[in-house]
Design a protein that fits this description.
The protein is 60% helix and 0% strand. The protein has one domain: Four Helix Bundle (Hemerythrin (Met), subunit A), CATH 1.20.120. 26% of the residues are buried. The protein is mostly helical and 177 residues long. The protein is globular.
Length: 177
C-alpha cells in the first residue's frame, strides 16, 4: 500500500507517512540549550586530547589560527543575531514557534543555521588549539546532535508555521554550509 493510500485511508485517525521521532529520543528535542551541548562537546574534546596524547599533531601557529577561526565565528554569530533582531523575531532556541518571520537575507542567504555553524567553527578553533586529531571528532558529534535534537525539530515547527515560504527557503539554502 502506498503512503498516499495510507494517508487517505488513515486521515481520520491522524496517521502520517512521515517517520515520527522515536518517543524516548523525542523528549530530548529542543531541551538541551545549544550552548550547553557546545560546552559539553568542548570539554569532551579536551579530555580526549589529554587521554589520547599519541594523536597529538603539530599544527603550525595554532594560536593565531584558532583566534582567526574564533573571530570568524564571532562575526557570524553576531551577524546572525542582528539579522534576527532586525526582522523582530526570536533568537531563543527553545521556542521556534515564537518566530515571527522567515529570515532569508543577510547570513541566512548562505546557511539556515548560522548561529549553530558559529559554534561549530569555535569548536574547530578549539580542536586546532588542542592540536590533537582525536579531538576533531567532537565536530561531527556536535553537528549530529544539533541536527537531530535542535535543527530538525525547529524545521518541523517552522514548516508548520510558515508553510510554503519556509519550504522554499529550505529548498534554496543549505542546512549547514
Amino acid at each position: 500500500m502506498s503512503c498516499g493510500t495510507l494517508r487517505e485511508s488513515s486521515a481520520r485517525i491522524g496517521f502520517s507517512c512521515h517517520a515520527a521521532p522515536e518517543p524516548t529520543l523525542q523528549r530530548l528535542e529542543l531541551k538541551v540549550p545549544p550552548v550547553v551541548v557546545f560546552l559539553v562537546i568542548g570539554a569532551a574534546m579536551w579530555l580526549v586530547a589529554k587521554q589520547v596524547p599519541q594523536a597529538t599533531v603539530h599544527i603550525p601557529r595554532p594560536l593565531p589560527v584558532a583566534i582567526a577561526f574564533s573571530l570568524a565565528a564571532a562575526w557570524l554569530g553576531v551577524k546572525a543575531i542582528l539579522d534576527f533582531r532586525r526582522h523582530g523575531t526570536t533568537v531563543h532556541p527553545h521556542y521556534p514557534e515564537k518566530a515571527s518571520t522567515v529570515v532569508a537575507d543577510g547570513v541566512y542567504r548562505y546557511t539556515r543555521n548560522p548561529m549553530y555553524l558559529a559554534l561549530v567553527v569555535v569548536l574547530l578553533a578549539w580542536a586546532v588549539r588542542l592540536g590533537n586529531l582525536a579531538s576533531f571528532a567532537g565536530l561531527p558529534l556536535f553537528v549530529a546532535y544539533m541536527t537531530r535534537f535542535q535543527v530538525k525539530p525547529e524545521e518541523r515547527i517552522l514548516l508548520s508555521k510558515f508553510g510554503a515560504p519556509y519550504r522554499e527557503y529550505m529548498g534554496t539554502v543549505r542546512r549547514w554550509i
